[in-house]
Amino acid sequence: RAKQLxxxxxxxxxxxxxxxxxxxxxxxxxxxxxxxxxxxxxxxPQVDVATGRITGIEALVRWNHPAxxxxxxxxxxxxAEETGLIVPLGLWVLNEACRRARAWQDTGVAPLTxxxxxxxxxxxxxxxxxxxxxxxxxxxxxxxxxxxxxTESVVMQDAERAxxxxxxxxxxxxxxxxxxxxxxxxxxxxxxxxxxDRLKMDRSLVEALPGDKTAVAIVSAVISLAQTLKLSVLAxxxxxxxxxxxxxxxxxEEAQGYRFSRPVSPEEILRLLQTQLR
Length: 278
Ligand code: C2E
Ligand code: CA
Ligand code: CA
Ligand code: CA
Hints:
This is Diguanylate cyclase (GGDEF)-like protein/PAS domain S-box-containing protein. By secondary structure, the protein is α/β, with parallel strands linked by helices. It contains 13 helices and eleven strands.
């Protein structure tokens, strides 16, 4: 098997334009991780700012490496993107998240949205919409409970193709959110061009609340922009009560962050959902 894959190195390029040879080992390791049960998902609640109730859950992938232990996504998602392994990896995430969402529903807790991150190569894959349809079908999950999160760079790469993909996904009935809003340069252009349902305000904007006047102005403007465009708005990375109070007064609809919960196991999510049944 190792022989079949060869002794090649993967060429990957850093921002400075230099080329770094990487032993194929790492690629193969990640491939094995996808096929060999080393990936798992953690789940982070999204809450209604006004009521504190959980309205959705974001699925976040982790790699339990046999030697290195727990590897955070920042250390393997870029490699997965470069090598194209993100396509099978993303497919696994999608199916696992749908399966879990259905299992939660089957326990009788109030149904909620499951949000899945989608990267550029997945979104550019012409088969992506049918993979989504298959995952929903396989796990018996109604499409409006699935939300796909993409960043502006994913849609801006090839706007025409992205618009077509978004149309197919919307036709299925899944919801689309723009992730990390406000972390890039052209977020406004992305909002004008693409039919999103929801805006997720980047943690970098929320972080400086409520002390920083510029952050306050920007967050307030983003919330009213979202209202004008009929997008629901969620603040990411909410860690403190002061941030929460600000967001409540500014009429931000939803929030996600350590203030409520870190990403946790599916069992812990179920416990949280059952606790709020009261
Ligand atoms: P993201 O989609 O913006 O996910 C939110 C990240 O912020 C998560 O990091 C989460 O643990 C972290 N976070 C949540 N609340 C707080 C908070 O209050 N404070 C702070 N400091 N951080 C908070 P994580 O899980 O390490 O994921 C990092 C990134 O990796 C994600 O950013 C996403 O871009 C990517 N990623 C994770 N899972 C997947 C996946 O299944 N597919 C793809 N394509 N990308 C993924
Ligand atoms: Ca996300
Ligand atoms: Ca985000
Ligand atoms: Ca991010």
